[in-house]
Write a structure and sequence with these properties.
- This protein is of the alpha/beta class.
- It has one domain.
- The protein has twelve helices and ten strands.
- Strands 1, 3, 4, 6, 7, 8, 9 and 10 form an eight-stranded mixed β-sheet that branches. It has a two-stranded antiparallel sheet with strand order 2-5.
- Helix 2 crosses helix 3 and helix 6 packs across helix 12.
- The two termini are 25 Å apart.
- This is UPF0246 protein FMM80_09570.
- Belongs to the UPF0246 family.
- InterPro entries: YaaA (IPR005583).
- It holds the Pfam family H2O2_YaaD.
């Protein structure tokens, strides 16, 4: 079972015209609880939480208070407008690409937890790394969104059947955070989920901010591969944020186009002039470098 995780984007839109049938986010109830907590905050408290300009704070404050459940929903994969999504170009996916995305692609979210491509969402602003301490009155004893979501995001990734997903909604997540990563990695089989985690392969195309909501809970038996896109500079791999976002989106599109079913297939990725670099890679980190114009050192595929 191959799953791809990606980050959301700050910029979102509402679409009226789309062809897919909407589904409901698996953690819609928990998202609703977050929404209620956010509405109880003042404008200044929200602005501090969002860490944004006055203009963006006003826009998101108005969105927050205008929200009506079930209205103005957009499929999650079409709702985000960041660089990664521009290069992914899901609005021009073929039917087979969209089917692949529905099965394999998941978007991590500070507000919704985890999203499937067809899950109906509203525009929101809530980063996974948002600091809740200054506004704890609205969130009780929870200090961070990592703590709020616990292991529920990972458990959903490992769920294969509707029964598994229903079970996630009826059981509370463990109160664990990224700080527990070492202990969880050594926990072995105890960290497994209702689904057969032995066959799970996770392709990490998310930023560190979002992958931290999954990594601490992964059982040793799970195949986890993070993809790194960079260039060699002074003998070191240098990652440029914008270029990495472009490559992540391009890789998702390429995986859907080629129906990739195993992490080893990622090594054939050659879009945007990237090549897999075997010497710099490991079982858990695949390094892709921009192909040099002239000769090169090292092993490229």
């Amino acid at each position: 079972m191959l799953k791809i995780i990606i980050s959301p984007a700050k910029k979102m839109r509402i679409l009226e015209d789309y062809s897919c049938q909407l589904s409901a986010p698996v953690f819609q109830e928990k998202a609703g609880q977050l929404h209620t907590a956010l509405r109880n905050l003042s404008f200044e408290e929200l602005k501090k939480l969002w860490n944004c300009s006055e203009k963006l704070a006003v826009q998101n404050y108005e969105r927050l208070h205008a929200w009506v459940p079930g209205r103005h929903l957009t499929p999650a994969l079409l709702a985000y407008e960041g660089i990664q999504y521009q290069y992914m170009a899901p609005h021009i996916f073929s039917e087979s690409q969209w089917t692949y995305a529905e099965e394999h692609l998941r978007i991590l979210s500070g507000f919704y937890g985890i999203l499937r491509p067809t899950d109906g969402v509203i525009p929101y602003r809530l980063e996974m790394q948002a600091k809740l301490a200054p506004v704890r009155k609205a969130f009780g004893s929870v200090n961070s969104l990592y703590e709020y979501w616990g292991d529920s995001i990972y458990r959903h990734l490992a769920a294969e059947t509707p029964a598994d997903i229903d079970a996630l909604q009826s059981t509370g997540p463990a109160a664990k955070t990224p700080a527990d990563a070492d202990a969880l990695q050594s926990a072995g089989p105890a960290a497994k989920t209702p689904a057969d985690a032995d066959a799970l392969q996770i392709v990490n195309l998310a930023s560190d901010e979002y992958s931290k909501s999954v990594l601490p809970f992964i059982a040793p038996s799970v195949t986890w591969v993070s993809c790194i896109f960079g260039e060699l500079a002074d003998g070191r791999v240098k990652v440029k944020g914008t270029l990495a976002k472009m490559a992540r989106g391009e890789m998702v599109r390429w995986m859907a186009e080629n129906q990739i079913q195993d992490v080893r297939g990622l090594r054939d990725f050659r879009q945007l002039n990237y090549r897999f670099h075997e010497e710099l890679s490991s079982d858990r980190a695949y390094v892709f470098l921009k192909s040099p114009e002239g000769g090169h050192r090292g092993v490229f595929r």
